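<discrete_fold_record>
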Amino acid sequence: MQFTKTVLVAAAVMTICGSAQASQLVYRPTNPSLGGDPLNGNWLLSQASAQGEGASQSPGFSIDFPDFGGTPQPTPTPTPLPDVDTP
């Protein structure tokens, strides 16, 4: 009786563990620039336009640069242009 019960429990465990199978992961790009469906372009653009702070201010593309943590950034110095003689 004990042996039969042990065999049944072992068979049940092996059946449950044996049915768990993995499949191969397949990458399907969404972005049309990376090989995805070209019809996704308008949807991606509308989703990107609807996000961020600048979306309601202008209908065009805007970039919100991150805060650099209070680190002072160098300011570019203008390069003097050579004088040009005009006739």
In short: The longest helix spans residues 2-19. The mean pLDDT is 76. The CA atoms of residues 19 and 44 lie 39 Å apart.
